[in-house]
Amino acid sequence: GAVVSQHPSRVICKSGTSVKIECRSLDFQATTMFWYRQFPKQSLMLMATSNEGSKATYEQGVEKDKFLINHASLTLSTLTVTSAHPEDSSFYICSAREQGGTDTQYFGPGTRLTVL
Amino acid sequence: QKEVEQNSGPLSVPEGAIASLNCTYSDRGSQSFFWYRQYSGKSPELIMFIYSNGDKEDGRFTAQLNKASQYVSLLIRDSQPSDSATYLCAVQGSTFGDGTTLTVKP
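Structure tokens for the assembled complex are given below, as produced in the milestone run.
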């Protein structure tokens, strides 16, 4: 149980385009989902926390207009990187916390974004 | 001071040895503690969680929690080369340390 999927697993795009990443909890309902970014050999960096049906809470320094998060249902959250630039190239990982469950976060497999 | 502190390592142990990973946290009111393993290029995967003081064992892994001293540790017995990874400590499920890189040498 507690499986989280992400799609796509890998994406390459041109500078200036937008990219949408989906995060789904497959066998549980997730009240809260988290989006992280990780650069090579660096630690996880929390970007934002999203709660179903409400606006996401962004960490300091993360541009909410550039990284659009939608948590429309208890099993789906999306992250859209708008007007992507090469410096946005990174490993984006989502996680989900089960509704009514423990504090445990279950991580998706990640999406590797490369902006040319 | 970071909320969750881990020795970045790298920690190197020989195969078959016990690897000991430590984590300290600043919020004395924290109730839940988690250990994740992250292989290079992959996302973190949950190893185990612990809520109560003392030891919790799961196979070769033992988590130890001491709330009075505000530390939580992870012991890996009979370490294998496949255990080579970065180990992340998380407090209250959402505050992560920077991780400790473990290398198990054959």
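The mean pLDDT of chain A is 93. Residues 14 and 116 of chain A are 5 Å apart (CA to CA). Further analysis is deferred to the final report.
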